Amino acid sequence: MAIKNMSAVAIKNTTTATRALDGDMTVDEFKEWLKRFDVDKDGRISRQELQRAIKAIRGRFSSWKSSRGIRAADIDGDGYVNEDEIDYLIDFAQKSLGLRIVAY
């Protein structure tokens, strides 16, 4: 998995296998990476968990962006992003975080 602009330390702490730093990641790789920030292991991503993920890729304004990401992806309004809403979070990550996520 590769995430644009991710530091070597962040990669070591959030992945088990890496490719190039500026490459693409698949949808499955994105989901696996995101699961590492699901601290309470409830299968959902909260604003705080998303904020930690954004910080891990050295994203600026992580609090603001995490709030925007939850609002963009949380279709049912429960304050979390679940498996059914992950595609909306992928769209947000590509547009607002500069991640390159591909289907293969």
From TrEMBL:
<protein>
    <recommendedName>
        <fullName>EF-hand domain-containing protein</fullName>
    </recommendedName>
</protein>
<dbReference type="InterPro" id="IPR002048">
    <property type="entry name" value="EF_hand_dom"/>
</dbReference>
<keyword id="KW-0106">Calcium</keyword>
<dbReference type="Pfam" id="PF13499">
    <property type="entry name" value="EF-hand_7"/>
</dbReference>
<feature type="domain" description="EF-hand">
    <location>
        <begin position="25"/>
        <end position="60"/>
    </location>
</feature>
<dbReference type="InterPro" id="IPR011992">
    <property type="entry name" value="EF-hand-dom_pair"/>
</dbReference>
<dbReference type="GO" id="GO:0005509">
    <property type="term" value="F:calcium ion binding"/>
</dbReference>
<dbReference type="InterPro" id="IPR050145">
    <property type="entry name" value="Centrin_CML-like"/>
</dbReference>
<keyword id="KW-0677">Repeat</keyword>
<dbReference type="Pfam" id="PF13202">
    <property type="entry name" value="EF-hand_5"/>
</dbReference>
<dbReference type="InterPro" id="IPR018247">
    <property type="entry name" value="EF_Hand_1_Ca_BS"/>
</dbReference>
